[in-house]
Amino acid sequence: MARDLGRVGAILIFGGLLAGAAAGPVLAEPGQPTPAALVSLVDGLEQAANAQDLATVIAFYSADFSHGDGFDRNSYEAALAALWQAYPQLTYDVALVSWEATTEGGFITETVTQISGTRFERGRDYTLTAEIQSRQRVVNGQITDQEILSEQTRLVAGANPPTVVLNIPKQVSPGDRYPFDAIVQEPLGNQRLLGQVVDEGVTATDFMVPRPVDLEPLAAGGLFKIGNAPDSPDQRWISSVLVRSDGWVIDTRRLNV
Asked: What CA–CA distance (Å, rounded) separates 77 from 67?
């Protein structure tokens, strides 16, 4: 059985790209306050993101901005516009974990961003939640480059979607085998459970293009798989798709190889 549930894992990118925003002071060293220029940048970016003010958000990124997943400034702007069109009421709640001054007068920051929001389509509410940890470089008041350290997202729909616990490592070595369990907490009873594991490369290309997912009937209450990591360093989106008659859940994690 195939259902077009959209590109699994695509939404995560944008929390990481907006993870330059932060609230509250964080000390790089005991007794050292966060510089005013950094506070101004992150507060302004967070406010603009929550207002979905695309022009103001883009102004915080340098012309030569680069992202570890393949985005440049132009492709990021286009992708963010598409995301906000699909989710017009996203909320960004960000914590600045650490900052460090660089020799060129800029900063290296690490942030944790939590994102939540809903959209309504074809008579159904879709609820998105995500958490992304990222590292970014700030030079002359703009973000010049960024990488995602970890991320997880959940997209749910339906009146009573399954309650799922996902077990997967954050990092494995090239060529490793690793466990992947997506466990539904409620008893199956007489309900039919469908599911599939999706392994995708992390990419900035056509991420918003829907992908069909081939769902299989599950005899047990979840997905229990052994994954095979690529033979060379990589980053993957690993997702579980679980569907019942009363709702479905897509859980995605970034796997660092």
From this structure: 13
